[in-house]
């Protein structure tokens, strides 16, 4: 199995794990009566699930075989309103590093199709890290949770993130 092939298989698991972690964050916000933050992270969970399914579809299209891995335990308790966002930002930075490694492996193996497939994910990660960084900055600047809720409602993406250039997701994007 090539390095790109192995990393791609692992990335499916990473994306599903990210989805599960975002569900846990959303539920925590829901349980703390912060509906805008909850809604935002429920949408993020669906987006990460879609990313996993895009990678599944890529493997199906290239006849690479697909194994769906289990996901590790997720964090469900947080000390304050900013900690879940801090965790989400760390997760997005980690995923960016993983996607960069996938791109580099494809390039090293002269796999032009693999390299090209990772370009959309690289662009997506720039947006994800920037968005989560902004949200964390807002959360750390205030203790007034209504300010954060208003910011999310007013300025965060509303979940219609299906871009025309997005890769297809196995079974269709949610």
UniProtKB/TrEMBL annotation:
One of its GO terms (cellular component) is cytosol. Gene3D superfamilies: 1.20.1260.10. Keywords: Iron, Iron storage, Metal-binding, Oxidoreductase. It comes from the Bacteria. GO terms for biological process: intracellular iron ion homeostasis; iron ion transport. Residues 1-143 form the Ferritin-like diiron domain. InterPro entries: Ferritin (IPR001519), Ferritin-like (IPR012347), Ferritin-like_diiron (IPR009040), Ferritin-like_SF (IPR009078), Ferritin_DPS_dom (IPR008331), Ferritin_prok (IPR041719). The keyword Transcription does not apply. GO terms for molecular function: ferric iron binding; ferrous iron binding; ferroxidase activity. Fe cation binds at residues 15, 48, 51, 92, 125. PANTHER family: BACTERIAL NON-HEME FERRITIN, FERRITIN. This is Ferritin. It comes from Microbacterium schleiferi.
């Amino acid at each position: 199995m090539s390095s790109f092939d192995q990393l791609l298989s692992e990335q499916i698991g990473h994306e599903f794990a990210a989805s599960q972690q975002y569900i846990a964050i959303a539920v925590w916000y829901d349980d703390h009566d912060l509906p805008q933050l909850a809604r935002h992270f429920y949408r993020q969970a669906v987006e990460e699930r879609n990313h996993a399914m895009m990678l599944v579809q890529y493997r199906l299209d290239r006849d690479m075989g697909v194994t769906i891995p289990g996901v590790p335990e997720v964090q469900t308790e947080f000390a304050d309103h900013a900690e879940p966002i801090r965790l989400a930002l760390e997760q997005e930075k980690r995923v960016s590093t993983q996607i960069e490694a996938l791109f580099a492996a494809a390039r090293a193996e002269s796999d032009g199709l693999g390299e090209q497939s990772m370009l959309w994910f690289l662009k997506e990660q720039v947006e994800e890290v920037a968005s989560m960084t902004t949200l964390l900055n807002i959360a750390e600047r205030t203790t007034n949770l209504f300010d954060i809720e208003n910011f999310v409602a007013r300025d965060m993406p509303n979940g219609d993130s299906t871009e025309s250039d997005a890769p297809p997701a196995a079974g269709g994007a949610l």
